[in-house]
Specification:
3 domains, 427 residues, OB fold (Dihydrolipoamide Acetyltransferase, E2P), alpha+beta, 8 helices, 4-stranded antiparallel β-sheet
Length: 427
C-alpha cells in the first residue's frame, strides 16, 4: 500500500517551507524513521523522517521547491509496486494508485553521486573553497557536515607547514587582520590584488533564514515606535551570585551562566510590571498571563531566539539547564519551530563582544527587549572617593505606542535594582 510523505506542522506561525535536500533518490529503499529530506522554515532547518519502510517511488517536489504545510511531497510504496505516472499532476486524482512492476526495476534507479550529508551553507563554502567534503569530519546531527566543520578543516589545512612559506623560503608573517581574526575565531577577507573600482567578494542571496531576518527587522522598525532607554548597574552582586552557584557544582556539572540569572531577573521584573509583557493584536493590546523569555543566539551566521518558558516559576538552576540544552540544539542546527515560538520578551547579551550600550530591535509581536552589555570594572565615586567597581550596561527597547516612557523607565529601574540585589527575586 502506498504511503504519502507530508510536510508536518512546523510551528504555529509557519505556513510553508523550502526543500533544501533529499537524502534519497527515486527508487531508493527507505526505512521508517530514517531522515528522508531536509526543509527550511523561517529560522529553522530540520530533517523530516520517513513515515514508513519501502521504496521511495516518487518525489513530487525537487530541492529548492517551496511547499505548504500538510502538502504531499513524495510517495513510498512496497517493493514490487510503483506510483501511477499521472499522480501529482494538475487535475489528477489525489488518491494514490499503484501498479505492479518488476521487483528489480526500482533497484536500477540511479542514485545521486553525492551521498555526503552537509548543511547548505557548509556545502556552499566547500564549493567556493574547492574542498572535498569526504575529507571533512562531521559533527552535526545524523553525521551532517556543518559550517563549523568546513571552517575547522580549512583552519587545519592552513596550519600545515606546506604552503606557509614565501617565495624566498622565509615564513610568511601574520598580518594584523589575521591576528585579530584568529583571536575572534573569524576568517579574514582575502586580499588578492589592487583594483581601482570595486569587485564582488561574495554574493549572499536574501533567502531562507536571511530572508526571515530581512523581513522581520524591516517590519519591526517600520510598524512600531521604538524607544531605547539606557542605564548602568553595579554588577558586584550579580558576579558574586554566579560565583556562589558555581562553587557548589560537582565535577563535570555545567556552570551557571549570567544569561540564566538574567532570565530569572527579567521574569521577576515582568511579574512586577505585567503591562511590559504585552503585544499588539489588531486594535487591542494583549497583556500575557504567561512569561516566556527568548535569548538571542548566533547560529550559522544568523540570529535565532530560542525561548525559555515560564522562567518565573523555575529556579536559576532549571533555567540554566534548559538554556544549555537550547545552546546545544542551536550549535548543532537541531532547533525545532516550537523552540522559537510564543516568546513574550527577549534578552540580547552582547557582553561577549565587549559591547557596553546598544540599541536592540524589537521582535514582533513582542513589545520590549533588554540589551545587556559587558560586565567590566570601572571607576566610580562613593563617599567622595574614586573606587573600582564592577558595572554592567542595560538597554531597554520598547514599543512607545503601547508602553509609555515612565512605565518603561520604572521597569528598567526594577531590573537594575534586582541586578544589584538579587535577593529581591525571592520576594
Amino acid at each position: 500500500m502506498a504511503i504519502e510523505v507530508i510536510i508536518p506542522s512546523l510551528g504555529e506561525v509557519v505556513e510553508d517551507a523550502k526543500i533544501l535536500r533529499w537524502f534519497k533518490s527515486e527508487g531508493d529503499p527507505v526505512e521508517e524513521g530514517e531522515p528522508l529530506l531536509e526543509v527550511e522554515s523561517q529560522k529553522v532547518t530540520m530533517e523530516i523522517e520517513s513515515p514508513a519502510s519501502g521504496i521511495l517511488a516518487k518525489i513530487l517536489y525537487p530541492e529548492g521547491s517551496k511547499v505548504r504545510i500538510a502538502q504531499v511531497v513524495a510517495v513510498i510504496v512496497a517493493e514490487g509496486e510503483a506510483v501511477s505516472a499521472s499522480y501529482g499532476k494538475p487535475g489528477a486524482s489525489t488518491s494514490v494508485k499503484t501498479e505492479t512492476t518488476s521487483p528489480h526495476k526500482t533497484a536500477m534507479s540511479e542514485k545521486k553521486p553525492d551521498d555526503i550529508r552537509a548543511a547548505p551553507l557548509a556545502r556552499k563554502i566547500a564549493q567556493e573553497k574547492h574542498i572535498d567534503l569526504s575529507q571533512v569530519k562531521p559533527t552535526g546531527p545524523h553525521g551532517t557536515i556543518m559550517k563549523r566543520d568546513v571552517e575547522a578543516y580549512l583552519a587545519s589545512m592552513q596550519n600545515q607547514p606546506q604552503g606557509q612559506r614565501g617565495l624566498e623560503g622565509a615564513p610568511i608573517r601574520e598580518t594584523a587582520e589575521e591576528k585579530i581574526a584568529k583571536k575572534q575565531g573569524a576568517v579574514p577577507m582575502p586580499v588578492d590584488k589592487a583594483f581601482p573600482g570595486k569587485e564582488t567578494l561574495e554574493t549572499i542571496p536574501i533567502s531562507g533564514i536571511r530572508r526571515a531576518i530581512f523581513d522581520n527587522m524591516y517590519m519591526s522598525l517600520s510598524q512600531t515606535a521604538q524607544l531605547t532607554l539606557h542605564t548602568e548597574a553595579c554588577g558586584e552582586a550579580l558576579t558574586g551570585l554566579r560565583d556562589r552557584f558555581n562553587k557548589r557544582l560537582g565535577k563535570g556539572e555545567t556552570k551557571v551562566s549570567y544569561n540564566a540569572i538574567l532570565v530569572k531577573i527579567v521574569a521577576t521584573a515582568l511579574r512586577l510590571h505585567p503591562k511590559i509583557n504585552a503585544s499588539v493584536e489588531g486594535d487591542e493590546i494583549r497583556v500575557w498571563q504567561q512569561i516566556h523569555i527568548g535569548v538571542a543566539m548566533e547560529s550559522e551566521d544568523a540570529l535565532v531566539v530560542p525561548v525559555i518558558r515560564n522562567p518565573d516559576l523555575k529556579s536559576i538552576t532549571e533555567i540554566n539547564q534548559e538554556l544549555n540544552e537550547l545552546i546545544v540544539k542551536t550549535r548543532d542546527n537541531r532547533l525545532l519551530p516550537d523552540d522559537l515560538a510564543n516568546g513574550t520578551f527577549t534578552i540580547s547579551n552582547l557582553g561577549f563582544a565587549d559591547i557596553d550600550y546598544f540599541t536592540p530591535i524589537l521582535r514582533p509581536p513582542e513589545s520590549a527587549l533588554l540589551g545587556v552589555g559587558r560586565i567590566v570594572e570601572k571607576p566610580v565615586i562613593k563617599d567622595s572617593q574614586i573606587i573600582p567597581e564592577t558595572r554592567v550596561a542595560l538597554s531597554l527597547t520598547f514599543d512607545h505606542r503601547i508602553i509609555d516612557g515612565a512605565p518603561g523607565a520604572r521597569f528598567l529601574k526594577t531590573v537594575k535594582e534586582v541586578v544589584e540585589d538579587p535577593v529581591l527575586m525571592i520576594g
